[in-house]
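Researcher: For the record, we're logging two predictions in this thread. I'll number them. Prediction 1 follows.
Model: Prediction 1, sequence and structure:
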Amino acid sequence: MIMYREEINLRENQDEMDRARLKIFRQGLELDLLKSRMAEIKQASLEPSNPIQCLAQLLMSKEMSDITIVIPGHDENFKVHRLILSMWSVVFQAMLFGPMAEGDTITLSEDPPEAFSWLLAYMYTGETELPSVELALQVYLLANKYLLAHLKTVCSK
């Protein structure tokens, strides 16, 4: 009889342990599901939701860039896309696709880095908020150089 009670207690303990394991397993599955859902939400928030965001992401990530623009004295090179620059500027179109195409790297010795960076932001995103008059003047000169009439108008306002 004592043996029987011990066996019952052992089985009850085993059943309790099995229930606890099952509960932990279910919680683990729920946690995995929650982690998976959070990853999906995070990914969705990173995915651009319109063409402008797609282009901005291309500029920032440098993904699929096919040309490097070097400005001497500037720490970072600009990794950009021939197609984007050529869509905006016939000057870039000639530089990048014409008979005088210069290869995979272009050096722009005379362009101020901050103004050129802003020019790229304009080309990729349509950004027109210039933070200072000095920068507006520099960007205006670049817009004139690269024949960007709309940008010249923006800078002159």
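Researcher: Logged. Prediction 2.
Model: Prediction 2, sequence and structure:
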Amino acid sequence: MSARVAVIGAGPFGLAGLKNMREAGFDAIGFERRGYVGGIWKHSQDGRISVVPNTVFNGSRSRSAFTDFPFSETVSDYPTCDQLYDYLQDYADAFKLRDHIRLNTSVNTIRRVGGRWELELQTVGNEDVYTEIFDKILVATGSFQTPKYPTVPGIELFDPKHVTHSLHYTPSEDYKDKKVLLIGFHATAKVYLSRRNNLLLLRKFDDEGRPFDQTQTMVFCSVIAIFEAVCPRFFYWLLDNFMASQTKKQFPSLKKYNNFLPAPSMATTTPVAADVLVPYIDNGFVEPIGSIRRVTGPRSVELNDGRVLDDVDRIIYCTGYHFDQPSLPTEYQPAPVHGVPPKLYRNIFSLHDDEGVRDSLAFLGQGAAFFSGFSMFEVQSMAIAQVWKGNSKLPSYKERLAWYKANLDDFNAKHGRMTTNATHYSVLLPLGETLDFLNKTAGLGLENCGWFSAKGWSLWWNDRELYKICRTGLFSPAIFRLFETGKRKTWNGARSQVFKDNEFAKQRAAERRTRIAEGKKVQ
């Protein structure tokens, strides 16, 4: 009998996790408290995190698809939230996942009973609680769960009805003709963009008309991996200086704000795509200001530079989220201490004292390398499936703990070198080391594209066109399904999709260059 796996969440991570668990032969069932699949990618006003109607994905369509389910050619280079929501519906339908998902079902808590997992479940709108037993649990609700509310002295002086978190923000007439502190670009009269620190700002497209993440070829990733492993501090010094030069070049109008520089290192903080933001700064709709010292009255705020804003109508916290998992007891929380890396091996597998827990509890969305799109997390689910199936083995518990300690030490060392009190993303992982682990554990076969492997030389000799496009072309998600390894399932359409992705990306870039030459708007 196949092991029963509970997949908590039916957003992008949950759908990919459910699909890959079932693909590996597990009796997997998904649980989703919302009445639909797709997670945050459908705008809602139910008090849970969701996109706003004009949200656009930060990764390009060519890099952000699942590994065996490409986007339609009608999808924008940077998919809109509606396009992503439709894509996730199509994904669920294509792989017949809906039959294995219980919507409107909350997982209230989990507990160990007789060496297995008991889930306490409740149908939304029904007071009755029931339980079910599973062998393994994959928590795939992502990392955006509990909103952060940083302490602002005097905030109690401001009308509480006019203070909210971006979690609860919905564009409405309530913001029209109002002056808003922090963020909110929809039909407002003025926005004060308060920030503790500067940021690296980038455009979504490069000078050749390509989405910025398309420059991350396999060769590019390999070079980054080597430098990051051998001389990380020098590597990030070079990278930070290059990115700062790009910010200055791409947004010369921000010179009066010192181009939002110096910015925190990319070793700790990710850059921001600012194509939409900067025009609003240029026309005065958004005014960048310094950090807040305190709230001094019902509409007034004092900044740390001494300036007082006495005309603020609304305050919106856009300060991110803690990585808590509401349905999990404290002992199973991946990140029980806020602001530090989760206590997980490779930010995926539990490091609980109980061996039974370690062998049956895993997470998606708690760790990420600089690799855009959903495929990185989908590949994590493949790795989990192969470990649970017995096709791949993790190191000893002692070695896993040593990895966690080294990861924590590296995090603390980077944090100690920070020159500002900026957000330090605790889920960031080294690209090369992470890809290497996922390649071996999930069985991706990336060694077939390697410089120094026999399989790489074999592919170069037998299929030079494929070898070349895999190494120097667009890093298509389909590459992760290309090679047979005896572990994760391959996709028969992977080879043709790699070429299609590259050709389509070239076509879109050429069209964009033409529009630029004609003086037309590019988006």
